[in-house]
C-alpha cells in the first residue's frame, strides 16, 4: 500500500425518507410524515414538534402536550416557560408503538391556555391505556388516534 495516497473510506449513505416507502405508519394508517419519521441524525435534534399548552394554578405551571400515540395529555413541568418558547422533553409515553419514546419531542408553547383545548379531545380510558402499554390496538383506540392534534 502506498502511504502517500489518501486512505479510502467507504461512502456513507443515509437513507432518504420517502413517504411511499416509509415503514412507519401514522395512526391513520398513512405513511408517516417527516416529523413522525425517525431521522438518522441526533434523536433529540430530529424529534418531532408538537404544540404545548400551559396551565397555571396555585402550585405553579404545568405544560400539557397531546400525545396522538397514547391518546392522552402528557404533563411536564412548565416553570419559567412562556408562549412562543420551544422546549424539548423526554416523552412519558406508555403506548408501545410511540416513536416519541426514543428521542422525545419538541414542544412549541402556544398562547392558548390548556383549559381552552383540554376538552376538545377524548382521552383513552384506563383500560385502553393498559392495552396500548401492552401493544394492543382496538378500533376505538384507532378512532381516538385519529383525532386531530391541537
Ligand atoms: Zn405518549
Lateral strand order in the biggest sheet: 3-2-1-5-4
Average pLDDT, to the nearest integer? 80
Number of helices: 3
Sketch the topology as an H/E string, one letter per element. Answer: EEEEEHHH
* Poorly predicted spans: 1-40
Q: Give the distinct bound molecules.
A: zinc ion
Number of strands: 5
Q: Strand percentage, roughly? A: 15-25%
Radius of gyration based on Cα positions: 19 Å
Structural class determined from secondary elements: alpha+beta
Give the CA-based shape: globular
- In helices, the fraction of residues equals 10-25%
Instruction: Name the assembly state.
Output: single chain
- What is the rounded distance between the termini? 61 Å
Q: Sketch the major β-sheet.
A: 5 strands, mixed
Question: How would you characterize this protein structure?
Answer:
Helix content is 13%, strand content 21%. The protein contains 3 helices and 5 strands, in the order βββββααα. The protein is globular, with a radius of gyration of 19 Å. Residues 1-40 have low confidence and may be disordered. The structure holds zinc ion. Zinc ion binds at residues 67, 69-70, 74, 91, 93, 95, 98, 100.
Amino acid at each position: 500500500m502506498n502511504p502517500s495516497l489518501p486512505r479510502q473510506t467507504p461512502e456513507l449513505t443515509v437513507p432518504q425518507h420517502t413517504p411511499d416507502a416509509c415503514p412507519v405508519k401514522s395512526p391513520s394508517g398513512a405513511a408517516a410524515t417527516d416529523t413522525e419519521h425517525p431521522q438518522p441524525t441526533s434523536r433529540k435534534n430530529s424529534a418531532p414538534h408538537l404544540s404545548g399548552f400551559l396551565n397555571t394554578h396555585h402550585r405553579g405551571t404545568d405544560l400539557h402536550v397531546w400525545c396522538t400515540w397514547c391518546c392522552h395529555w402528557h404533563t411536564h413541568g412548565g416553570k419559567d416557560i412562556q408562549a412562543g418558547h420551544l422546549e424539548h422533553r423526554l416523552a412519558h409515553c406508555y403506548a408501545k408503538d410511540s416513536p416519541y419514546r426514543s428521542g422525545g419531542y419538541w414542544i412549541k408553547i402556544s398562547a392558548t391556555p390548556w383549559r381552552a383545548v383540554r376538552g376538545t379531545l377524548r382521552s383513552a380510558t384506563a383500560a385502553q391505556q393498559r392495552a396500548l402499554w401492552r401493544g394492543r390496538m382496538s378500533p376505538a383506540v384507532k378512532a381516538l388516534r385519529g383525532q386531530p392534534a391541537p
